[in-house]
Amino acid sequence: MIKKLSSLGSLEEVFKRRTSIESAMESAKRIVDDVKVNGDTAVRKYTKQFDGVDLDSFALTEAEIDSAFELIDYETLEHLQHALDNIETFHSLQMPQSDMWLTEVSPGIRLGQKYTALASAGAYVPGGTGSYPSSALMLIIPAKVAGVPEVVACTPPRKDGTIHPLTITAIAMAGADEIYRVGGVQAIAAMAFGTESVRKVDKIVGPGNAYVTAAKMYVRGAAEIDMPAGPSEIVVIADETGNPVLIASDMIAQMEHDVNSLAVLITPSEALAKAVDSEIKLQTSSALRKQIIEKAGYVIYVTDDLVAAAAACNEIAPEHVEIMVANPMPVLNGVRNAGTIYVGEYAPVAAGDYASGANHVLPTGGYAKTFSGMNVMQFLKTTSVQYIEKEGLENIRDIIVALANIEGFDAHAKSVMKRFS
């Protein structure tokens, strides 16, 4: 579908494609509340109901983890290790230079910040019928780099009660301390409140369907979350120099995720718009996941210029942005709202999904306006430090006393004055 983008209001076609979690919230609340009260019993009930598995225990044993490694070929392990190394390197660069800093802002007053890792974190790794080792690496490695001492992982079991050995291997290589064969809303609830078998955590991270996302939003009083993460999204900003074959390929790569995925091209070039439209139809005809891609659909917008294209992208605030233009820096500087940005013809989203090292767990559904993607700061708390000497307090004494009295807090004023009486 090619449309002329005359105003940002014309983006309604994009917004109506997005999946709302509101319809899933009531069901999520019911399950969460049940797990909160009944613990393991409720988790078992919902695992049997939704996954078709009657489990005796949730935690994987050391023997099960060791067996999983034995089932993975050496070449695959090497690929996982290489990806792990890149992800670890990138996230290590995000760490503050020291655990604490102090600087003198005026005589006798030193202010600073102290960084402390969360005590525990829980990673929700998608699974069940498929295996997503890349997600395990993206969720657990930043927590470990940040210094979180306890990291657990929940992932849905298969019909026989097992977890795909590749998923187990990736979770273990990333450094998780516990692996639970629990998925869905019941996994989020178990990590948020704790059960007889599943550890309670301070923060829950990881993508999931509308019900998992709704559960994460609902439990925020008991455990913090990373971000709302739903169906995959991509916005490609391209000019007449863009390669229609590559642009179509990258849009299809996101469309194959889910029927609710969103793929958008924004370009000032009508010729490129038509070429990409034709190329998407051509490539879809031979795609392995053709039925999903066709149901997902796509939108192509033609704008007056690249400034308008960046403005439209900011309004959409997508998970992924690709920039394929002759002069990318002005466009890059103009994009404010995005989970992650890829620049250049040789920067497909798939690179970040698996091996470049940047994180692929990102806000979707427009939440990139207010949320950041997964990073080490998700697992660090900042605490301000105030080192004040007599001279420093004396210099601001009159200000404190005056403002405290204006607000009617006499004891505040006296707490300062007593130090000089």
UniProtKB/TrEMBL annotation:
Active site: E319 (proton acceptor), H320 (proton acceptor)
Cofactor binding summary note: Binds 1 zinc ion per subunit.
Residues given in the record as Zn(2+) binding sites: Q254, H257, D353, H412
Residues bound to NAD(+): Y124, Q186, N209
Pathway as given in its UniProt record: Amino-acid biosynthesis; L-histidine biosynthesis; L-histidine from 5-phospho-alpha-D-ribose 1-diphosphate: step 9/9
SUPFAM superfamilies per UniProt: ALDH-like (SSF53720)
CDD domains: Histidinol_dh
Any one cellular-component term (Gene Ontology): cytoplasm
Entry cofactors: Zn(2+)
Domain of life where this protein originates: Archaea
Pfam family, one: Histidinol_dh
GO BP terms: L-histidine biosynthetic process
Reactions that this protein is recorded to catalyse: L-histidinol + 2 NAD(+) + H2O = L-histidine + 2 NADH + 3 H(+)
Signal sequence annotation: none
Coiled coil: none
Molecular function via GO: histidinol dehydrogenase activity; NAD binding; zinc ion binding
Gene3D superfamilies documented for this protein: 1.20.5.1300, Nitrogenase molybdenum iron protein domain
Main enzyme class: oxidoreductase
Keywords: Amino-acid biosynthesis, Histidine biosynthesis, Metal-binding, NAD, Oxidoreductase, Zinc
Amino acids binding substrate: S232, Q254, H257, H320, D353, E407, H412
Protein family per UniProt: Belongs to the histidinol dehydrogenase family.
Function summary: Catalyzes the sequential NAD-dependent oxidations of L-histidinol to L-histidinaldehyde and then to L-histidine.
Entry protein name: Histidinol dehydrogenase
Organism: Methanocella arvoryzae (strain DSM 22066 / NBRC 105507 / MRE50)
